[in-house]
């Protein structure tokens, strides 16, 4: 056998002994690469999770900031509406107060003018025959309810006629009372009926003596007439 042949024979016999080492080295390298790939994948997942968590936190902060900003805007708007509403209420109250004051002043002026005009108006009515007779009849009817004594004294302003005296007699007759008539030149209108120390004063002064009642009657009349 030649040296070359012996060399090939040795080589062919040595190869099987080295094969397991070579195969072991290949398996170890594959495992390392697999482990490295796993490490890289795990790291990538961890990085992605961290990034997502960071993004979620940022978004949550943004939402919180937007919510807080919206709440502040709503609170500011609500406060502004309340201020505006309060100003409106105050303005309305002031306007109503001014209106009531104006209406009261107008009403007071109308009452004062009416009160001042009443004496002359009553004197004028006394000069009207029909109004004077109704006046005497109403006064006598009041006297019939108020006077107890059977003898009346009737003092009348000038211009009274027999018809007016008859209206007084008719009322006195319901109480079986007699009437003594006299003319009082100091009176400009109306009459007084007296008996037993009690007097029914139906002159302008007597009719207007209770100012509160007169004002109430005037207010009712103004209301009926549509005065403010």
Describe the structure.
- The chain is α+β, with helices and mostly antiparallel strands.
- The protein has helices at residues 3-126, 129-146, 162-173, 204-207, 211-224; strands at residues 151-156, 178-183, 191-195, 198-201.
- A four-stranded mixed beta sheet has the order 2-1-3-4.
- Helix 2 runs parallel beside helix 3 (162-173).
- The radius of gyration is 60 Å and the shape is rod-shaped.
- Mean pLDDT is 82; it is low at 2-23.
Helices and strands in order:
Blueprint lengths: L2 H124 L2 H18 L4 E6 L5 H12 L4 E6 L7 E5 L2 E4 L2 H4 L3 H14 L4
Parallel strand pairs: 1-2
Antiparallel strand pairs: 1-3, 3-4
Helix pairs in contact: 1-5, 2-3
What pattern of helices and strands is seen along the backbone?
HHEHEEEHH
**Kindly, what is the distance between the CA atoms of the first and last residues, rounded to a whole number of angstroms?**
151 Å
Strand content: 5-15%
> Could you name the ranges where pLDDT drops below 50 across 5 or more consecutive residues?
2-23
Structural class: alpha+beta
Q: What share of the residues lie within helices? A: over 70%
Features:
single chain, alpha+beta, 4-stranded mixed beta sheet, disordered N terminus
TL;DR?
This protein is α+β, with helices and mostly antiparallel strands and 228 residues long. It has 5 helices and 4 strands. Helix 1 (3-126) packs across helix 5 and helix 2 (129-146) packs parallel to helix 3 (162-173).
């Amino acid at each position: 056998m030649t040296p070359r042949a012996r060399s090939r024979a040795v080589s062919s016999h040595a190869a099987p002994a080295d094969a397991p080492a070579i195969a072991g080295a290949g398996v170890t390298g594959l495992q390392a690469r697999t482990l490295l790939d796993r490490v890289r994948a795990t790291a990538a997942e961890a990085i992605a999770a961290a990034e997502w968590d960071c993004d979620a936190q940022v978004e949550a902060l943004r939402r919180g900031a937007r919510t807080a900003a919206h709440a502040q805007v709503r609170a500011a708007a609500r406060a502004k509406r309340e201020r505006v509403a309060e100003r409106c209420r105050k303005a309305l109250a002031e306007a109503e107060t001014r209106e009531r004051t104006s209406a009261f002043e107008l009403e007071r002026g109308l009452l004062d003018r009416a009160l001042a005009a009443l004496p002359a108006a009553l004197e004028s009515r006394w000069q009207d025959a029909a109004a004077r007779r109704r006046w005497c009849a109403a006064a006598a009817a009041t006297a019939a309810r108020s006077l107890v004594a059977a003898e009346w004294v009737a003092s009348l302003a000038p211009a009274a006629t027999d018809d007016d005296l008859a209206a007084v007699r008719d009322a006195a007759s319901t109480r079986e009372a007699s009437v003594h008539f006299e003319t009082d030149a100091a009176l400009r209108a109306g009459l007084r009926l007296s008996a037993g120390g009690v007097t029914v004063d139906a002159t302008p002064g007597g009719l207007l003596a209770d100012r509160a009642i007169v004002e109430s009657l005037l207010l009712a009349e103004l209301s009926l007439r549509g005065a403010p």
